Amino acid sequence: MAIESLVNKAKQVCDNKGTRFTSIREKVFRLLAETQGGIGAYDLLERLKTTEANAKPATIYRALDFLADMGFIHKIESTNAFMLCHHFDHIHPVQLLICEQCGHVDELHSTVISHELNNQAVEFGFKVSAQTIEARGTCKNCSAL
């Protein structure tokens, strides 16, 4: 999906929820939209500084917290990185396939995996409130090399 279309969709979601999509939030969103795979907060900060010279770590972390709360991004816990979610217009299960060689990340939405995990959790008396499953390996491009 084109970046402008994603930005417009994000603005609409914010309007519908009565929140502000500030210029900093939009700039961070755009940086994430331009990035393949995940990117760390400090790398984002360096990119943001090209247009916002006074940006500090708190600037990035506040923007990332907002984008995560809105469901616009996923945090890749194993690498402490962030990636844009292109399906933020609805709640969905998330499974991430992370290439250990090139860093490419594919996002899956298997309801079968989600339901199975939830069913197993219930057997332990556990209620899942959020779910992101990460699988590490080699993508098809790196496998072909």
Question: How are the SSEs placed, and which strands pair?
Answer:
Elements: H1 3-17, H2 23-33, E1 39-40, H3 41-48, H4 57-69, E2 73-76, E3 81-84, E4 94-99, E5 105-108, H5 111-123, E6 132-137, H6 140-143
Parallel strand pairs: 4-6
Antiparallel strand pairs: 1-3, 2-3, 4-5
Largest sheet: 3 strands, antiparallel
Order of SSEs: HHEHHEEEEHEH
Query: Count of helical segments?
Result: 6
Q: What number of domains? A: 2
| Shape label | globular
Amount of beta strand:
15-25%
Structural class estimated from helices and strands: alpha+beta
pLDDT < 50 stretches: none
CATH architecture of the largest domain: Orthogonal Bundle
Q: Roughly what is the average pLDDT, rounded to an integer?
A: 93
Spatial strand sequence of the major β-sheet:
1-3-2
Proportion of helical residues: 40-55%
The number of E-state strands comes to 6
User: Taking Cα atoms only, what radius of gyration do you get, to the nearest Å?
Assistant: 16 Å
> Mind telling me the CATH superfamily name of the largest domain?
Winged helix-like DNA-binding domain superfamily/Winged helix DNA-binding domain
Q: What is the CATH class name of the largest domain?
A: Mainly Alpha
Keywords: Cytoplasm, DNA-binding, Iron, Metal-binding, Repressor, Transcription, Transcription regulation, Zinc
Subunit structure: Homodimer.
InterPro entries: FUR, Fur_C, WH-like_DNA-bd_sf, WH_DNA-bd_sf
Family: Belongs to the Fur family.
